[in-house]
Amino acid sequence: MCQYRERDQQLENAFNQAHAFEILEQPEIINPEVEEEELPEREMSNDQFQRAQHAMNVDQRQLFIHITESIKNQLNGDIKREKIFVTGGAGTGKTFLFNLLKNQVNRCYGKSVVKLVLSLELQHG
C-alpha cells in the first residue's frame, strides 16, 4: 500500500510540474474586474530578518540563494533572466520565502520590490 501512495505522490508531482510549465507558456490575460486586496507592507527588523533566514528549510535556502545571485548578476549586466514557478500547498512557505526575498532586495540594493498579482484566465479549447 505504501508503494502505491508513493507512486501516486510521484505522479501528482510530475503532473503539477508539467501543468506549471504549461501555465508559464500561456499569455497572461489580466482581468480588470478583479481587484487585489491591499495588505499593508511591513519591513522586517534586522532581528526578524536574521531569525527568518535561519528558519528557512533547505529548499527555501537554495532557492533564496539562487534568486539573490541571479539578481546580483543582472545588476552587474548579465542579460540572463530567470523564469521560476514556485508551487506548494498551503503552509509550505511560499509567502515566507517571497517576503524574505523582498526584504533582501530592499536591504541590499535599495530597490523597492513591487508585488504584482495577476488574474490568469486559462482558456481550454
Automatic annotation (TrEMBL):
- Gene Ontology MF term list: 5'-3' DNA helicase activity; ATP binding; hydrolase activity
Biological process terms from the Gene Ontology for this record are: DNA recombination; DNA repair; telomere maintenance
Q: Does the keyword Chloroplast apply?
A: no
- Its EC top class is isomerase
Q: Which UniProt keywords apply?
A: ATP-binding, DNA damage, DNA recombination, DNA repair, Helicase, Hydrolase, Nucleotide-binding
Question: Which metal ions or organic cofactors does this protein require, according to UniProt?
Answer: Mg(2+)
Query: Which source organism does the UniProt entry give?
Result: Eumeta variegata
Protein name, entry field: ATP-dependent DNA helicase
Its EC number(s):
5.6.2.3
Quote the InterPro entries the UniProt record gives: DNA_helicase_pif1-like_DEAD, P-loop_NTPase
Q: Name one Pfam family in it.
A: PIF1
Highest taxon of the source? Answer: Eukaryota
Q: Which family does it belong to?
A: Belongs to the helicase family.
